[in-house]
Amino acid sequence: MIGNGNGHRPPVKTPRRIEPAHGISIAPTGADDLRLRVQQLSLREQLERNHFLLERLNASSARLIQTLENGDVFEAIAEIVANLIGSEEVAIFDYRPADETFSLAWSWGVEAGDLQPFESGAGMFGRAVHQGLSQFRERQPDAALLPFEKNLTACVVLKSSREVVGVIAIFGLLPQKNGLEWADYELLKFLETYAAVAIQFQRLQEKQVAS
Amino acid sequence: MSTKKILLVDDSCTARLVNRMIFSQKTNYVLISAVDGKEAVERAQREKPDLILMDIVMPRMTGLEACRALKKDKETEKIPVILLTTRGEEQYVQEGYASGCSDYLTKPVNDVELLDLLKAYLGE
Fold it and tell me: Theoretical Cys-Cys bridge with B56: which of A113, A142, B85, B100, CB 3.0 to 4.6 Å?
């Protein structure tokens, strides 16, 4: 409130400093100081972690938006995986629910010959489509794998209106990357939906050009 | 606080986007970019950045070739070059240092590590 309506400013309240009783110090002790620093570090870390994730989501989203004009959605997904997750072995598969088969749509850094059309089966790919959930090797190290899934790190489902329409298979990680981290899981969750949308858009555009 | 100009060289648009966001945490860094080694050498000669952050595997001219070219040129030889690449194998690291780079970082990049390194070269 500024003023009290009668033309007179309200009395200015001056902050009163409360002096400690004689002989009592309110300056932080060594232990208090340490506690404050720990609290500060923890808060700083929270902000930095959030920022770290948002930077990556933002860059990925911006890159996917560019594919609307460039028509390079598969390259964009591979770039995101290489630069932000840390793998240069990526394959993208289409999934046909009618006959439960996967067919290779695009690959980078892996032998395409090893990835011929196959049935969903009992391995990671199969679990991904049957559960409708991305599968991560390090979360289920003992789960069954098909022969070509040996080097698979993640099977990220691509969902359109809750239906699995494909999978991003991430094989070996870069040598300096020891495993997936929390921000990687979040980014892959983002790709489940938005990479699928971008792929769908590109397919429709290709159909339009062809007709 | 003086402004520092950083030349970011990467053929990957995603890498350029994420680095832009990382640098946005610092208000005194001005970022310019190039998409391959050849363009990097030209921009460095023209714009004299305070530091170059460069990928290795790129079309037209690789980061290693560009680094060697920059170090041969009197106008650009003193600009610190940090190679930032997916290639973490020992052979690449050795080749990187042999090309004259000042430092070598591997992707995926860690914000804190990158910003600390830049601070070490550029000051606050």
Answer: B85
Domain membership of residue A41 (yes or no) is no
What number is the average pLDDT over the span B18-35? Answer: 88
Q: What is the CATH number of the domain that holds A156?
A: 3.30.450.40
Residue A26 maps to a domain: no
* Rounded-to-5 percentages of helix, strand, coil across chain B: 45, 20, 35
Instruction: Classify residue A111: in a domain, yes or no.
Output: yes
B102 touches chain A (CB under 8 A): no
Q: B93 exposed, middle or buried (CB, 10 Å; 0-12, 13-18, 19+)?
A: middle
By the CB < 8 Å criterion, does A65 face chain B?
no
Indicate the SS3 state at residue A33.
Answer: helix
Contacts of B21 in chain A (CB under 8 A): 55, 58-59
Classify A95 as helix, strand or coil: strand
Q: Do the chains contact at A51 and B107, CB–CB below 8 Å?
A: no
Q: Which of A132-146, B58-72, B84-98 has the highest mean pLDDT?
A: B58-72
Q: Would you give the end-to-end CA distance of chain B in angstroms?
A: 7
A153 contacts chain B (CB < 8 A): no
Name every chain A residue with its beta carbon within 8 A of the beta carbon of B12.
79, 82-83
Tell me if chain A has a CB within 8 Å of the CB of B91: no
